[in-house]
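task queued by scheduler; priority normal; single chain, no ligands, no partner chains; default sampling; output format set to structure tokens
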Amino acid sequence: MKRYFSSSSFCVGFVLIALMTGILLVSFVWLPKDPNEMDLLHKLSAPGTYGLLGTDQFGRDILSRAMKGVQISFLIGVLVVAFGGCVGTLIGSFSGYYGGKVDEIVMKLIDTQMAFPGVLLALMLIAVFGNGIANTVLALTIMSVPRFARISRSGFMKYRDSDFVRAEKIRGAGSLRIMFLHILPNLVSELVATASLAFASAVMAEAGLSYLGMGIQPPNPSLGKMLSEAQGLILRASWYVLIPSGIITMLVMGFNLLGDGIQEVNERAS
């Protein structure tokens, strides 16, 4: 950890993520108001006049909706990284360890998927399966699989002929034991960096889909949907645009910087 905190990128990312995590934890136990409660008498109130961060065009408390939106962003990010990471790592592990025809077939499928722009693929999947959190997670998970598969594949190809693997084979260890007890632990730092970058991509993609009306659906508050609603009010309520866009920026920048810092330290150590 001392090596990681020697990286300025890691430190800045860590601070931003800690701030967002603090907001997330507070939102579980306390919200200023009901995020969906409307009060048309106080619509578009400026920050501090009726609510700490003001109200939107329906009189809903922006702070409460933003805090709830952070919950959804973290939920989407965690689920996408968990499912995409597990599936991608398994695919890349078998592909990199066994090589040959297995590797060739898997990589052709991965390359075919990567030929489609990620957001376009997500839009197509959501158009087929419908809107909602579950379908958004499914679409973004499929987008994230190639990233993990490539990292784990390259790692397994690097270590599959190393001395410690040969020693385990001589001792009679099976392939699965060698793969997941001896090779995979050596890839943890690379996979953590990939997970951090995938988390940022998932948050950004979810915000983009919600902005286009194809992600999280009302009345559930989403940072992307809030930004879409605020777009037409930028001259009347500029704070309404700045709040969700600022939170999205801090989330994405925090996880990107954290991942960059981890990669920087790993490259320096190697």
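post-processing summary
- The chain has a mean pLDDT of 90.
- Residues 62-98 form the longest helix (37 residues).
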